[in-house]
C-alpha cells in the first residue's frame, strides 16, 4: 500500500479523543499557574509563621520570578521577606514592590560562596570576624544556627550602629 500522510493533531478534533497540542499546552500552562499560586501561598504562610510583619502581603510568581508587595513594618522586615522568597527553590529573582512603615538604613547583601563562614563574612564587611553574631541576628529567623549557611544563599549584612 505505501506511506500515508495525516494531519498530526486532527484526530482529537475529528473523533473527540485525545488532545491537540494546543489543548495540552493550555492544560500545562493552567497546571503551572496553579503550582505557582500554591507556591506563592506557601511563601506567604511561611512569612507569617516567621512573624515577619507585612500588612497586605501578596506574592505573585511567574516562572522563576516572584513579585512581592505589601507594607513591611521596617526595612529589616522588608529585606528578610525578600530573602525568604529569593532563597526558595525555583525563584531566580524577586521584584520587591513593598513599602516600609518605619524607615531604616538599607542593608548590604552577600551571596554565600563555598568556604564562607559567618566569621569570614563579618571580617570582610566589618573588619572583625567576631562580629558574626550581628549577621546571624540580622538573618534570623531564616538562620537557626550560625554554622548552617550554604553556597548560593543570600544574607543581609546590616550596617553597624
Automatic annotation (TrEMBL):
Any coiled-coil regions, as ranges: 19-53
Query: InterPro entries recorded for this chain?
Result: Bact_Kbp, BON_dom, LysM, LysM_dom_sf
List the protein's name.
Potassium binding protein Kbp
Q: Which CDD domains match?
A: LysM
Q: Which residues form the LysM domain?
A: 108-157
Q: Does the keyword Coiled coil apply?
A: yes
Pfam families linked to this entry? LysM
Transmembrane segments in this chain: where?
A: none
GO CC annotation = cytoplasm
User: Which parts of the sequence belong to the BON domain?
Assistant: 34-102
Query: Could you tell me where this protein is found in the cell?
Result: Cytoplasm
Q: Which species is listed as the source?
A: Algibacter marinivivus
Amino acid at each position: 500500500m505505501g506511506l500515508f500522510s495525516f494531519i498530526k493533531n486532527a484526530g482529537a478534533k475529528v473523533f473527540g479523543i485525545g488532545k491537540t497540542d494546543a489543548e495540552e499546552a493550555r492544560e500545562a500552562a493552567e497546571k503551572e499557574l496553579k503550582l505557582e499560586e500554591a507556591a506563592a501561598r506557601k511563601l506567604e504562610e511561611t512569612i507569617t509563621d516567621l512573624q515577619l510583619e507585612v500588612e497586605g502581603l501578596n506574592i505573585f510568581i511567574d516562572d522563576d520570578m516572584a513579585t512581592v508587595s505589601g507594607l513591611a513594618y521596617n526595612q529589616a522586615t522588608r529585606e528578610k521577606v525578600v530573602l525568604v522568597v529569593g532563597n526558595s527553590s525555583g525563584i531566580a529573582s524577586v521584584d520587591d514592590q513593598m513599602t516600609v512603615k518605619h524607615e531604616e538604613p538599607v542593608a548590604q547583601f552577600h551571596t554565600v560562596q563555598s568556604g564562607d563562614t559567618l566569621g569570614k563574612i563579618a571580617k570582610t564587611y566589618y573588619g572583625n570576624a567576631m562580629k558574626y553574631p550581628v549577621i546571624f541576628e540580622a538573618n534570623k529567623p531564616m538562620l537557626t544556627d550560625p554554622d548552617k549557611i550554604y553556597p548560593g544563599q543570600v544574607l543581609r549584612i546590616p550596617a553597624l550602629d
